[in-house]
Input
Amino acid sequence: MSTDELRQALELAWNGDGEHVERLMLTAAILQTALREAGMEATLVGGGAIEVYVPESYTTSDIDLVVERRTRDDIDRVFTALGLSRSGRHWTRGDMYVEVPGNYLPEAVEEFRLGTMTLRVIRREHVLADRVVGWRHWKFWRYGLDAVSMLKAFGDTIDDATIRPHLRREGAEDAYNVLRELMESGEPINEESLEALWYRHYR
Amino acid sequence: MDLKSVDWAELRGMWRRHRAAVADLRKRVDPSGMTRPARDPDERAFLAERDGLGPFVEVDDPTYRIWRTGKYGTAAEVIAKWNRGELGPQHDPWKQADAHGSNEPHEPNREAESV
Output
């Protein structure tokens, strides 16, 4: 696929009239395709990954891509050719904001086929585990809410054999159980309740 | 590239199920004042212009960003190393990116697991 084709597709995807999550996925897939053709492998992580799985809980114009195998300058060449502008640690194009928070992703990914493109997204269990870890170790209450929302959405499709070792390694398996109890409790989920829950268990 | 040829049926089915699952939960949620990791100042300005910051309180903790790089151990290890002075601002990916060219090549990821 030529750079011109990808550039035009990016314009159509981001400014299209589809649902936000569909535009986000197409845009991320086009960026990943361009990076792949330049020898890199990129994976959607963070809030964008949550939106892919649970669009009702998260909407973002921030596209976080872990990009492996090349340097930031190589990434910049690809993004610039697509019409993005570098600004400090990120790239923008209109309302699109692209960040590269890392260059190494040890976790498994899920792949979504979008026409002729493939979108790589960090596997649901890992994005959920990361939110639990953020709540447990950094007291990010928002991440507790994200985790509870994903727990509710994923239901019994969560693969325990994937998520529990991840959480155990990070010292957050107990927090996962605590947030699951909150999800099932029917109690309010707000700043006060997530903070109180944390201090009840980890003070 | 024909973007209209993408078949969304399977994904839309998943989203429908997930939306139904969280519908009741949303009635219990008030996100006002919840803490979240600090945004890059440029990103904050970008979102502020678009009224996209949300009702959150940002907390700047470089140990979180260092942990996210996946290079320095588990969350508890990163926090402990930071407290012992074994990790510092020079390990913060924001600082490294500012220094330019820090996104060095790395071993490729393992095989993707398809859905």
